[in-house]
Amino acid sequence: MASSLSFILALLLAIAATDAFTVHLLNKCPYTVWPGTYPVRSGSRLDPGQLAAIEVSPGMVSGWIWGRTGCNFDASGRGSCTTGDCGGMLSCAAGFKPPATLAEYTLGKGGSPDFYDISIADGFNVPMSFGPVGSSCHVVSCAADINAKCPSELKVDGGCVSACIKFGTPQYCCTPPLMPSTCGPTDYSRFFKGHCPDAYSYAYEKNSTFTCTVRSDYQVTFCP
């Protein structure tokens, strides 16, 4: 009986491991990027050309991946980053400090589709692409150098913040008295959208989430 239970447990664990998604993280930038991931926690430094990976369980709560720049960490994993900092930790236990180009995902389970996108609704720091590997599903890309073209009033060290982060008004943040159904683009969000048509450029923007029903691993490429 005990051996049968052990066999069943091992089988279930093997199935769960097989069912996990791998998200590959590739740095093609000419500078170092420290990927931030949440709620999957990992800490890594990617020098130019380096590759890392995280394992994601299907059906988990939505996750985020972003690139951090200008980071310095000590041996205990404490430090800070110029952009994308997550509480001064190498392994992120929370979200990021804007600006940061953000990959978002909810990976399906049991035949349900994956949902994924790139958001620059809080700003931009690193060019990025994100999508399934080896399938016909769309790879989302935000490859423009927005930092070089950022309006002066949105420029910050290492990146370009959104108008919502900069000014904090309902017009730019889609907050009351505005409703999601009445919130629309602004000149600032059009600037971001013009350079990265695939990406979310403001809160509640429609038609910037992509789906895939093909079982596949994913890849984030910094500076595609």
UniProtKB/TrEMBL annotation:
Tell me the leader sequence span.
1-20
Membrane-spanning parts: none
Which pairs are disulfide-linked? 29-223, 71-81, 86-92, 137-212, 142-196, 150-160, 164-173, 174-183
Write the record's keywords in alphabetical order, separated by commas. Antimicrobial, Disulfide bond, Fungicide, Plant defense, Signal
Q: Name one GO biological process term.
A: defense response
| Keyword Metal-binding on entry | no
Cross-referenced SUPFAM superfamilies, in alphabetical order? Osmotin, thaumatin-like protein (SSF49870)
Name the protein family: Belongs to the thaumatin family.
Q: Know the name of this protein?
A: Thaumatin-like protein
- Name the encoding gene, please: LOC123115456
